[in-house]
Amino acid sequence: MSVYKTLSLALLAGAAMVTAAQACETTLRSSDTHPEGYPTVAAVEAMGKMLEERTNGRLCIEVFHSAQLGEEKDSIEQTQFGVIDMDRVSLGPFNNIIEETKIPSLPYIFRSVDHMHHVMDGPIGDEILAAFEPHDLIGLAFYDGGSRSFYNSDHPIKSMADLKGMKFRVMQSDVFVDMVSAVGANATPMPYGEVYSSIQTGVIDGAENNWPSYESSGHYEVAKYYTLDQHLIVPEVLVMSKMTWDKLSPEDQAAVRKAAKDSVPVMRKLWEEREAASEAKVRAAGAQVITDIDKTPFIEAMKPVYAKYVTSDKLKDMVARIQATQ
User: Fold this and answer.
1) Nearest-5° angle of CA 259, CA 73, CA 229?
2) Eight-state DSSP code of residue 157
């Protein structure tokens, strides 16, 4: 994204916040690629209400949904530079920046969503959040990203053989690229906002994502075969610009951390409801959902991915601790 475009987006955002800014001493700009009403958007909005109340109006949050401030790669950079104050992003785009984020992004690292919660709510999660600070970001909290599965426009996928040679969009992460290659398909990194038209025009065969994203993006309209291989349970992360953070008093920093943590159960409740609603909508629209699939060959195929990315003693220890977490 050019400097001129970045500044233009920032000016537009500032103009949109005039009313909110009049009500609060400081209004934090928060970016999200997802649409209005999406659980992550609603959770940050809930965090903002908590923050406004707890700081007596010193701090508020204005959420700019639907990638109004740019796709994830651009919004991360803007947050590092302090143009955006907060950003809700999947861990995937951080994989090439912060090595600790690679571990929760590994395929089949989590046995279930509950297992992921136990890990990310504990000391391992705190360790990963702390790893953001050297990169000009403050890690605040982890949200749910659901389990990600493959969907495509061509045929049902019931085994790894059905994936051979197909082109799938992935997030801009080397881990994701190698995961798709490991199952015999071709990975095409691209921004989330380009996926619908790319499937529609045949540039790619499909993508991989969770129920709410598959539904809210409209991808089920152009890629009606959804295979529940559940290869990833990647958390989302809420981060703040360190430049913004350093301007806050210790009291307000503590309030931001507490409100972020308190927004997590709000998000999880909304997520459960949204997953159920999205699945019902997709099935009613006639998408073919493939559930009869043996995950064992997929899990076995990921051994080279682990060998490539889990190289240091620190990362090997983190994998072992995650696997030992009940």
Assistant:
1) 85
2) -
What residues are paired with 206 via a beta bridge? 152, 168
Separation of alpha carbons 127 and 94, rounded Å = 15
Q: Tell me the residue type at 20.
A: A
Tokens of 71: 């796709």
Q: Alpha carbon of 313 to those of 111, 179, 305, 316, 320: distances in Å?
A: 22, 22, 16, 5, 10
Nearest Cα neighbor of 279 from 115, 169, 149, 157 is: 149
Its pTM stands at 0.84
Tell me the per-residue pLDDT of 48-73, one tens digit each, with 9 for 90 and over: 999 999 999 999 999 999 999 999 98
Phi/psi of residue 232, nearest 5 degrees:
-135, 140
Cα–Cα distances in angstroms (integers) from residue 314 to residues 103, 122, 175, in the given order: 11, 17, 18
Torsion on CA atoms 192, 193, 199, 205, rounded to nearest 10: -10
The confidence score (pLDDT) of residue 3 equals 42
Tokens 């696997």 belong to 323
Number of residues in the chain: 326
The strand pairing partners of 64, in sequence order, are: 31
- pLDDT by residue (tens digit) across 145-159? 999 999 999 999 999
Query: Which residues lie below 8 Å from residue 222, measured CB to CB, with a gap of 6+?
Result: 153, 196, 199, 200
